[in-house]
């Protein structure tokens, strides 16, 4: 295992890129510590697969370096990087038994038979597949096939990193939570460096200790799931993470207050910088209905079981609030207040308010 460092990494599929728009990866500087659980999160086309292929050695970056520990592996082919990869679709041999599938990576590297046997047994116990070790893989259900594919990635104890590329895409929704929890449990037991690539925020936030959020070839924030929810550094993070996502509202701002649809709103702290387009960001969970605040017209109320999602209009601007109880009726007039400690201004998408006391 090793620390993974991406230094000044850029990549373009064009032979002579002319500007930022020609780059699939604009500039990436990320360090993943040895033994950590990480997620690479973003929508389709944001550069996740390009970055994964560069780390695995299937693609040479246009610029920058990849370091595994102190070793520069930028120019090394995949077979010399000592990595394991689990793909969207299970990569197993249907004609082999589960035992033979799990043993194959070790046997292929000339491991001793006793080590192969003990390691296969250990991984089978972790995956809860001991009873099917002698079953042919062709007869397994899709979720069990993906378990075996995961086991093949984990059976070696000498890899630098285990990478998961959308591993639950083809799994039935009611089985996904089982495999997500199993994968988290496996990481805690084997302590290998793991990078999980996904467009699904639930998968990323439940698996990872730290999440790298990407948009259009850029890393827009790196942080714990709590960091990403509580203080998004970019409006994209606020919108992409959370259900519903953060309200992003047009505003003007001076000092530690913003003007939204003609009403003054208190902020977490003073606005910094000049110029650009300003927006007000507040999560629906931090919007409340009370006796005072911004006047709004309720357009829709959805009971989703755990809470209510209230959709309202303030002037010409729609926004959402999440309430645990006391939801208003559709069509009613209400007052909305924003939690000042959780309300901030963004300039051209990037956070532009300073936390009080920071």
UniProtKB/TrEMBL annotation:
Q: Which GO terms describe its molecular function?
A: ATP binding
PROSITE patterns, sorted = ABC_TRANSPORTER_2
Q: Name one Pfam family in it.
A: OB_MalK
InterPro entries for the chain? AAA+_ATPase, ABC_transporter-like_ATP-bd, ABC_transpr_FbpC, ABC_transpr_MalK/UgpC-like, Mo/tungstate-bd_C_term_dom, NA-bd_OB-fold, OB_MalK-like, P-loop_NTPase
| Domain ABC transporter per the UniProt entry, residue ranges | 4-241
**Transmembrane residue ranges:** none
Keywords annotated in UniProt: ATP-binding, Cell membrane, Membrane, Nucleotide-binding, Transport
Provide the family line. Answer: Belongs to the ABC transporter superfamily.
Q: What is this protein called?
A: ABC transporter ATP-binding protein
């Amino acid at each position: 295992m090793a620390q993974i460092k991406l230094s000044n990494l850029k990549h373009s599929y064009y032979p002579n890129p002319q500007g930022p728009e020609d780059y699939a990866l604009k500039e990436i500087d990320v360090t993943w510590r040895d033994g950590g659980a990480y997620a690479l999160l973003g929508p389709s086309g944001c550069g996740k697969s390009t970055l994964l292929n560069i780390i695995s050695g299937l693609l040479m970056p246009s610029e920058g370096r990849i370091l595994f520990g102190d070793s520069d592996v930028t120019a090394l082919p995949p077979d010399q990087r000592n990595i394991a990869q689990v793909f969207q679709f299970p990569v197993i041999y249907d004609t082999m038994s589960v035992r033979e599938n799990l043993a194959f990576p070790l046997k292929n590297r000339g491991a001793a038979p006793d080590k192969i046997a003990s390691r296969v047994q250990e991984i089978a116990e972790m995956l809860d597949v001991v009873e099917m070790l002698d079953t042919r893989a062709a007869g397994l259900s899709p979720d069990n096939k993906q378990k075996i594919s995961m086991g093949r990635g984990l059976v070696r104890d000498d890899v630098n990193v285990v990478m998961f590329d959308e591993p639950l895409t083809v799994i039935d929704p009611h089985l996904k939570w089982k495999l997500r929890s199993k994968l988290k449990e496996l990481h805690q037991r084997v302590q290998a460096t793991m990078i999980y690539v996904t467009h699904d925020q639930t998968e990323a936030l439940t698996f990872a200790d730290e999440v790298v959020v990407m948009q259009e070839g850029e890393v827009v924030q790196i942080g714990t799931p709590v960091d990403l929810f509580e203080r998004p550094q970019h409006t994209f993070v606020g919108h992409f993470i959370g259900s519903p996502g953060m309200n992003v509202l047009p505003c003007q701002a001076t000092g530690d207050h913003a003007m939204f649809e003609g009403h003054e709103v208190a902020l977490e702290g003073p606005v910094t910088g000049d110029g650009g387009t300003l927006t007000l960001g507040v999560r629906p969970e931090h919007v409340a209905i009370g006796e005072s605040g911004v006047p709004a017209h309720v357009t829709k109320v959805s009971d989703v079981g755990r809470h209510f999602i209230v959709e309202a209009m303030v002037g010409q601007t729609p926004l959402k609030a999440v309430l645990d109880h006391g939801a208003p009726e559709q069509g009613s007039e209400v007052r909305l207040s924003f939690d000042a400690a959780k309300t901030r201004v963004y300039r051209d998408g990037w956070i532009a308010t300073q936390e009080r006391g920071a």
